[in-house]
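G., the chain you wanted modeled:
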Amino acid sequence: MKLLYIKRTSIGSEVIYDDCIVNYNAIPERIINQLCLENMSTYLGRRKATQIKYGIQKLTPIIVDDDVLLFPTHSSRDYENVWINFYEITNFNDEGVIFRGGKTLICKLAVVKRQLKKCQEIAF
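Predicted structure as tokens:
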């Protein structure tokens, strides 16, 4: 089960995997924090480390583990924000991001392109 993205909903968050969707009664940052805790760290710790090491102050990507590098599409306080897993993106087009398995997320490509550059620096 591969994590594709996390988005906020009216009741909490939806975590979209390659084979299912799971709803949580929590904001995305709490879900990301739980994922980080499974790897002996925290959301805030990983965010701060990324900011210091890579000089990124806004829309900071979060390295969760070797298979999950999440980046935000908006400020984490913005309801429209979606956390996308960089490692599961295969391509993008005028409509949005395309993931392995063919799922598509409609989003602003200008932001995604900037975020992809940040993630490439972190991942490689």
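The chain has three helices and nine strands.

Shout if anything looks off.
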